[in-house]
User: Fold this.
Amino acid sequence: MKYYLYNPKANNGIRPELSGVDLIDASKLDYQDFFAGLKDDDEVVLIGGDGTINYLINRVDTSKIPNKIYLYGAGTGNDFLNDINESAGKEILLNPYLENLPTATVNGKEYKYINNMSFGIDGYCCEEADRIKASKPNKKINYTTIAIKGLLYAFKPRHAWIEVDGKEYEYDNVWLAPAMKGRYCGGGMMLAPGQDRSSDCLTVIVYKSPSKLKSLKNFPLIFEGKHVKLTEMVKVIPGKKIHVRFSEPCAVQIDGETVLNVTDYWAEQK
Assistant:
């Protein structure tokens, strides 16, 4: 039997219409009990995007699930699908991508992630999007507009101390410092164009500049991955064990899920 789990928070809350399919509200499930009750030949389809995958991997040990799990892309960003060169609207087998996932430790809590653990203006964008959703649930979120507002005046860059595999780095005026498992974040930004999710390393991307206008002018390059050519502004650091600390707290986002008031994070790919 095939079960279709629908994330009511995906796609700005718009319920997908699939012909002949009974949808199960995933937010009302205990994932541990649900998967424990399946037969080995049952299959599960997750309907949603990056946050839907993140919800799954942080509630059940997917490495111990014998069932086939598919993703039917219906999210707003779909960075995971972009990274594996697939499109929304069809079932993609997830199981090969759910093995040996990296972990992020934030405010004493550990999370698994499928795409990225991002610190800086990306976290601010998710924080602002959450605020908009809370006050105007039906409003479509434009993350690019939020990012521009942050670059111009709403977000203040931080001083950052970064350690990757025991090597220490220090940068001023840091706007962004994520640990990337895939290439994409933020709904289509190719932040780490050289990252291979099948490798045993993550990639830290440091986007830094004391100039708001310069940061804003070059920001569109991120959508095509061309920002990494700006070697004075952008540092690319691959590694397995990462610690990033900021001079002042800000929000982080983990596969689009927001955590507030964070000063530092750890990320590790074993």
The mean pLDDT is 92. The chain has six helices and 15 strands. The longest helix spans residues 121-135.
